[in-house]
Amino acid sequence: MERITCDICIIGAGSGGLSVAAGAAQMGASVVLIEGHKMGGDCLNYGCVPSKALIAAGKHAHAMTTGAEFGVTPTEPHVNYAAAKDHVASAIATIEPHDSQERFEGFGIRVLRDFAEFTSPTEVQAGDTVVTARRFVIATGSGPFVPPIPGLAEVPYYTNETIFALREQPEHLIIIGGGPIGLEMAQAHRRLGSRVTVIEAQKAMGKDDPEMAAILLDNLRAEGIDIREETAAEKVSGHEGAVTVTTPSGDVTGTHVLVAVGRKTNVEKLGLDKADVKFSPRGVDVDDRLRSSNRRVYAIGDAAGGLQFTHVAGYHAGVVIRSLLFSLPAKVRTDHIPWVSYCDPELAQVGLTEAQARKTHGDKLEVVRFAYDQNDRAVAEGKTTGLIKVMIVKGKPVGASIVGAQAGELIGLWALVIANKLKMSAVANMVAPYPTLGEISKRAAGAYYSPRLFESDTVKRVVRFVQRVLP
């Protein structure tokens, strides 16, 4: 049995764990990184990277059918589904070296490729190695949650961890779950030529602003995706190539089933009881500094039980590094965290939705809106389906919702504004290049100030007075 002593031991080599490891090691701490599965974690291997690569393949196929308004004769694309999956594999392989064991060993990090389990509040064991550390960081992420639907375990089904290895194109893909993962995969597969039915027990995209979500859902339905909301999957039956999902509104039979109803944190096999670390099915119980009930143990990313996004794990890594290396009182906040659903149109959010803002701020809230069809670049590109809404309290944005082309890029400006507690004047003072979709944000700021300038009797009186006294 080998024994290692270090400053920081990180369990999990996904986005958050890798960020902590690289930062800590390069600033002088001795680091051990433990990973029992794939370097890069879920995002690289089963999530962000492969899904966006498949979405890109779907966009190219869709473009071939939608050129009529630009004078381009539409044509039915010939889709090689296996080749599309080759593109997915290529994207992963291209990024993989950045997350590789060799790269992190180059930083002086000891990388152990085994599953870790706490044996005491100060030790973990990974295979034949015991690690004693001054501080531990749990960065084990999450995996797909498979609900206990009767019959599901007896039929072939896919999750995000297995769907990207599928090489045979589904003739009819049934997706259980109408959240971002389910709808992204629904649109990608529909554009690549599969029939797609989405079954959602509640409202599709239920965590987003319902007005914005409706714009997205209308577009998905217009592309031929059958989205059945408030329809629970009660039973699953059948066999490979013919799987039936029973719902209150009738049976749906397809060739393949994808389960995308949510995520579960990967903490149950870590031996946290032996480490005096409190946890629940949501993840490790942490304070606003991401410390657990054992002050030596921190948790970040999905394992910390909050927002489940790769960029949140990276943000958590920065907070933990400040705390571990410099003993700074760094604390997490969530009001400035953006998220994006990468369908077409994209749906992005930062801060409070309109409903949340009304509940929190009441009559103090102002909401400004600007539609994509009033933006010249959107008109030129035929991308006029979309809307931005900004929620404002006393001149400061507290939330922004965008649905439309490049919403994921546009939301970054509002994340910056909210993170730094800037006023709407900061956006209004920005000069946006013309013609760009970025002007949408500036026009939203203009919509906030226009009534104050153009409908104000005081402003008009001041202008008339100045005009009278000017020489």
Task: Provide a short characterization of the protein structure.
With 471 residues, the protein is α/β, with parallel strands linked by helices. The protein contains 14 helices and 23 strands. The longest helix is centred in the last third of the chain and has 17 residues, at 310-326.
CATH topology of the largest domain: FAD/NAD(P)-binding domain
Total DSSP E strands? 23
Mean pLDDT across every amino acid position: 96
Strand content: 15-25%
Mind telling me the CATH superfamily name of the largest domain? FAD/NAD(P)-binding domain
Number of helices: 14
Q: Give the name of the CATH architecture of the largest domain.
A: 3-Layer(bba) Sandwich
Structural domain count: 3
Low-confidence stretches: none
Helix percent band:
25-40%
Question: Which value, in Å, is the CA radius of gyration?
Answer: 25 Å
The description of the largest β-sheet is: 7 strands, mixed
Approximate shape: globular
CATH class of the largest domain: Alpha Beta
Instruction: Provide the structure class.
Output: alpha/beta
End-to-end distance = 92 Å
